[in-house]
# Entry
Amino acid sequence: MTEPRSAGADALAQPQSPLAVGDETRLRFEVDAESGAARTGTVHTQRGSFATPVFMPVGTRAAVKHLAADDLEDLGSEIMLANTYHLMMRPGHDVVAGLGGLHEMMGWSGHVLTDSGGYQIFSLKPKLDDDGATFKSTYDGTVYKLTPELAAEVQCALAPDIQMVLDVCPSLPSSPEKLRWAVDTTASWAARARAAFATESKRYSDTYPDRPALSQFGIVQGGIDEALRRESAERTVEIGFEGYAIGGLSVGEDKTEMYPALAATTSVLPEDQPRYLMGVSDPVSLVEGVASGVDMFDCVLPTRNARHGTVLTSAGKLSLRRLEFRDDRGPLDPACSCSVCARYGRGYLRHLMLTKEPTAQRLITIHNLAWTFDLVDRIRDAVRRGTLDDLRRETNEVWG
Ligand SMILES: [Zn+2]
# Structure
């Protein structure tokens, strides 16, 4: 067990890292309220700050599908995610750098986090060795080799506020040997990624002295093996990052297997740094994740669901394609206070959906994101009031 640390108290006691961990000029996390393992807080960077727990909408190719930066601002989003693999292929990270980096290119002044590209590449069945992952591009069939160093270099060119290390993310179930190799390789890649980040982020800051400094998060693996999770967390913390992600969950296991692995991981991660559960944000996992001490979440589901006409509501999921909504003038969710629910009815949105008017996907995307942000607001409020258990029960009844 790592001893709980107070913010910045032992910033000087981390000699292993090529960059000072707890360098508060880069990224600082402040806990505002706690309830059990759950906490609300604020992440401060040189760009500004964002409140946690937070849900990050996914803008795969530097846009949340159907939305622009001002839509995200209207929704109150403070941080979004973009995918390194796709941007590295098109338009290319050098092109993004030439357009001023992700923020300037997108006209977005909130925070941006990029993944390392590893997750997409793993779905392409790459050839893995100790050095990196060799894969064929889905865009033009070209063969690339992504290494921890290249992932850091590419992300420094894209210039998100927070970048992720390249990790090995096995699907579950996996053999103990495969999980062990994933944990060992992820740890060795994390050390290489951190060294590369130290060089590349310094080069970035020297080139653009007026831009906010970049941060990097490590990733914990270990499948659903709690001892392996703790070991992976300890080894990642030893290298030292601005924050820590929990990867390799929600990849085939069921939820009763996922939560103990999650709790085992967060119990080892420093209390004064942000924790990010990757790729998980169904309502039950959001609430359970926060209860386990997670601060940051992302997932394509709210936006992907929206494009298929699946609406998130306080009564559960609703498929707008069903005939029963044809003559329904009511809002998508009577309990929702978003701009779409205030103005449009189910019958109209169903008609737009069935006639393939792109406006339907746009409006339902806005609702599903507003609904998810509202759930996160309610979770924050419940942590502050000490009523998270009530919200857990309520959420499980509808979504469990
Ligand atoms: Zn709504």
